[in-house]
Design goal:
single chain; mainly alpha; 3 helices
Length: about 110
């Protein structure tokens, strides 16, 4: 219980939605770790071991998705691409700066 509360506090939710998501994340993580912790103690048949391992894998995948959702909630889902190195060969042209694709307003193409 203390580990789950520490995870929620560490995530520092900013509103009720993020709070609910962090509680879900803590529960998902706790459930996955509980299943993984019992795998070696013998769940019985091989089929049961496979079923519990599969359940743990699904819970861990769900947790990873929840982490990504929380990241998107906080950052607005925007991506940032930074180009470190560009090659321009002889005869080529390069543009440096913020480039927006599309057609300019007022051009003949924009009226179509």
């Amino acid at each position: 219980m203390n580990a789950a509360l520490a995870m929620i506090a560490g995530a520092r939710p900013k509103d009720e939605i993020q709070g609910a998501l962090t509680v879900q994340m803590a529960c998902t993580h706790t459930a996955a770790m509980a299943i993984l912790g019992k795998l070696d103690s013998g769940f019985g048949t091989e089929q049961r071991i496979v079923a519990f391992a599969s359940a743990a894998a699904r819970l861990m995948k769900t947790f990873a998705m929840q982490v990504e959702i929380l990241r998107r909630l906080r950052n607005g889902g925007q991506q940032f691409v930074r180009v470190e190195h560009v090659h321009v060969n002889d005869g080529g042209q390069a543009v440096i700066g913020n480039v927006k694709s599309g057609i300019r307003e007022g051009s003949a193409d924009s009226e179509r």
